[in-house]
Write a structure and sequence with these properties.
The chain is of the alpha+beta class and 130 residues long. It is built from four helices and six strands. It has one domain. The radius of gyration is 14 Å and the shape is globular.
């Protein structure tokens, strides 16, 4: 069965970032996106397309599967089995397409952790709430 992690965020994207997500939503495959060169460290993970297309699994009822882009604001709620995939996405993809820092929630199926994405440094840091 496996251990699931939920990923949830709303991010204001740059115009180029919005173009990337529009293309992704049309193609459903990160490796086919041409609006931006997607980092190989993310693409090499076979689970990469579960972001944002993975079904929500073993999360609280308020977590509803979502992948919506409206007026440059991207809202995502999905699940996948590999936290490394999520970390690669945050470090190598999301940091390149967001206009400003955003709150990202990663939830292991048995806990809740929050991460703050800091765009200027292209790094994220754990702001875990106990």
């Amino acid at each position: 069965m496996g251990y699931y992690y939920g990923l949830r965020f709303t991010a204001d994207l740059t115009p180029q970032g919005a173009a990337v997500i529009e293309e992704l939503n049309a193609l459903h495959d990160w490796s086919l996106v041409r609006a931006m060169q997607v980092d190989h460290r993310f693409l090499s993970d076979w689970r990469c397309n579960f972001i944002p297309f993975g079904a929500v699994m073993y999360m609280p009822s308020e977590w509803i599967n979502e992948n919506k882009l409206e007026n440059g604001r991207w809202t995502v709620c999905c699940s996948l089995k590999d936290r490394n995939t999520i970390e690669a996405f945050l470090l190598h993809v999301l940091t390149r397409i967001v206009r400003e820092a955003c709150q990202v929630e990663i939830r292991p199926e048995d806990d809740t952790s929050f991460y703050h994405l800091t765009v200027p440094n292209k790094r994220w840091q754990n702001d875990r709430q106990q």
